[in-house]
Amino acid sequence: MSLEEWSNLVFQGILLGVLYSLVAMGYNIVYRVNKSINFAVPQVVLLAAYVSLIVAVAVGSFIAAIIAAVLVSIAVSMALERTVARPLLGRPPVALIGATLGVFYALKGVVLIVGGSRVATIPIDIDYYEVGPLDIATNDVISLAGALPVFASVVILHRKTRFGAAMRAVAEDAEGAAAYGLPVKRLMLAGWALAGLVGGLGSILLAIKTQVSPELEYFAIRALAASLIAGLDSLGGVIVGGIALGLAEQIGSKILDPYLPGIGRDIAFLVLLIVLFVRPYGLFGSERIERV
Amino acid sequence: MPAGVFKETYEADMAFIRYPIHKAALIAAIIALLAAPAVLDRYYLSLATTALIFWVAVMGLNITVGLAGQISLAHAALMGVGAYTVAHAALKLGLNAVLAVPLAGITAMAISVLLSLPSFKLKEYYLAMASLAAQLLLEYAFSRIDPDQYTPVPPEAKVLAGVDLNNPVNLYYFTALVAVLMAVIAANIARSTYGRAMKAVRDNDVAASIVGVDVPLTKALAFAIGGFYAGVAGGLYAIYSVGIGWEAFTLIVSIELLGMVLVGGPGRVVWGSLLGVLTLRTGWTLLESQLTPLLSALGMTAYASAFKYIVLGAVITATIILEPEGLIAVLRRVKEYFRLWPYSY
After folding, report:
1. Contact B135, B251 (CB under 8 A)
2. Do A120 and A211 touch, CB atoms closer than 8 A?
3. What pLDDT sits at residue A288?
4. Which chain B residue's Cα is nearest to A91?
5. Structural domain spans, chain A
6. pLDDT band at B226 (very low <50, low <70, confident <90, very high)
7. Residue ranges in chain A assigned as alpha helix (H)
8. Is B303 helix (H, G, I), strand (E, B) or coil?
9. How far, in Å, are A109, A156, B202, B309 from residue B302 at the CA level?
10. Around Cβ A96, how many Cβ atoms within 10 Å?
11. What is the distance between the alpha carbons of residues A259 and A262, in angstroms, rounded to a whole number?
12. Using the 8-state DSSP alphabet, how is residue B68 labeled?
């Protein structure tokens, strides 16, 4: 393979990785405030993508499509916090896993009604540019330009603002935070809403970068793998984990495809199992010490 | 302490039949099981057969998840391993399908033990995700083994010692025999040393290791038994089907199986599992056959499968939130009310 092919492969890998990290960040934020994983995210991502497709076709503006996707995702995420996560506070993790998987199951039905299993592209004009050895399309630029500011603002929000400090306090010790007078329940709701926002944005950027199809569901599951590879409680690690996964997927499928056709989709899970064997709490996650 | 009749010895408390209602229910269940082919027509008989097959699978998952607390989202894939073992043993080796069922159980058990390795280090969400990864990797393996999504199970392999399992009544009795056998074993596992060790690991694994429970061994055992049940259920499914395709063993089926455990009653291996299967699978199929004319009258036939997902998903989530111990806890409350009646205080 030539240098040009390799550099394009790496560029596409990084681009996919950035989108992985965006969706993975949604899981991460929920885990931080609530110590739980929202397994319903893959269907929320798919739902947001189909709604944005419908809006984009009906209204003809892709800004409206972005707004629709983000609003749907935030609304579903907040509804889940109120109706599923909050009643289950203090229950063992298997209850939350089961309940969010039930929501996953139910939302699959909603997605079937809203979008069927259609495959379509969001209608935008795509131009192609050549920058050095790279072939860049308009949708690549849009997804990068959409994702990077969101990363930056979530990290700044998390590290520099009072709101972020309050959220970190809730993540660290919810009861202690409540004792200091922090509105724990509202902060948890805000956390889920923020997760919905990143998830929805990830969904529409993915739809623009690739296409709207049931495959997005698996993309979001792989993003969960990225989040675990990085470690569930590391916000900065998610970006590294996502990009590493994007690269592994692009390069791995190129190398392995002659031997195992179609393995590309499942490389993430191979990488995840290997990482979990070597470092059970992810590459950047902190190990929990348990007391009895 | 409420009024009523109480058990005074440990043996009495651990017995299979503790109250008159248990005896009555058991006798009714045996009569129903034996009389079903005489009463039901072919459609309902095949429904009963699939319910029994899924009962075996859900009992296995209930041991892994309900008793030992190890979350597994790869159970449908393990069923698939069992089903493909039987189909390929019959197709390629010319083995009798019935004799291949134990082989299916052992193959699935071996893979399940392999899947238990992450559980030595991982817990909860990480473990759930590791098993989800295993499920999707096994789905990939199935898609390579069976690219057409159709592997026939030869009908001549389904005859053993003159009994033809292509006949639905014979198949029903054979499935019932295997299922009841597996249920008796499962009930005893739950009461044995290993069953109690599993419960200890589920409730607090660090504390369990301090009192001398071999935690990795117990986890591996829970996965092994769960995998064996899944493999046997998959083998029975292959005998039941004319041909198998891997779309019957996907992630969404794994979620359904986990839902059956949590809705029926996690930790209540025999009856909880049965209740889960009857609610989510048989119950829905019966409801659907009533619903279909209504949907076609409304012109919404295309949405039938969507409604299945929405209703069952809502049932799973609502049951977990409102009834942590599953629907069997509701039955128990009803039983206790009448047992203590009229002095239930």
Report:
1. yes
2. yes
3. 64
4. B324
5. 3-278
6. very high
7. 3-34, 41-59, 62-80, 93-115, 138-160, 162-172, 174-179, 184-209, 215-230, 235-256, 267-278
8. helix
9. 11, 47, 43, 13
10. 24
11. 10
12. T
CB atoms within 10 A of CB B36: 18
Nearest chain A Cα distance for residue B160, angstroms: 39
How many whole angstroms separate alpha carbon A222 and alpha carbon A238? 13
Instruction: Tally the residues of chain A.
Output: 292
Return the H-helix or E-strand segment holding A137: strand A134-137
Place of tokens 């009533």: B290
**DSSP conformation class of B94:** -
CB B241 within 8 A of CB B158: no
Contacts of A277 in chain B (CB under 8 A): 117-118, 121
Question: Is there a contact between A105 and B312 if contact means CB atoms under 8 Å apart?
Answer: yes
Tracing tokens 């089961």 back to the chain, one arrives at A98
For chain A, the C-alpha Rg in angstroms (whole number) is 19
- Domain boundary assignment for chain B: 10-248
Which pLDDT tens digit goes with each residue over A67-77?
Answer: 888 999 999 99
Q: Give, rounded to a whole angstrom, the gap between the first and last alpha carbons of chain A.
A: 56
Per-residue pLDDT band for B180 (boundaries 50, 70, 90) equals very high
For A255, half-sphere exposure in the C-beta direction (CA atoms, 13 angstrom radius) is 8
pLDDT over 90 percentage in chain A: 9
- Report the top-level CATH class of A3-278: mainly alpha
Rounded Cα distance, B225 and B229, in Å: 6
Which two structure tokens, joined as six digits, stand for B256? 């359904």
The number of residues making up chain B comes to: 345
Q: What is the ipTM of this complex?
A: 0.86
Q: Residue B263, CB half-sphere, CA atoms under 13 Å: how many?
A: 25
pLDDT tens figures, A119-175: 888 777 777 777 777 777 778 888 888 888 888 888 888 888 888 888 888 888 888
A:B CB pairs within 8 Å: 146
Across the range A7-22, mean pLDDT stands at 86
Give the model's pLDDT for residue B58: 94
Q: Is the pLDDT of residue B54 over 90?
A: yes
**Measured between CB atoms, does A91 come within 8 Å of chain B?**
yes
Whether the pLDDT of residue B3 is over 70: the answer is no
The secondary structure of residue A129, as a DSSP letter, is E
Span B256-275, pLDDT tens digits? 999 999 998 888 888 889 98
Interface of A with B in 171-190 (CB under 8 A): none
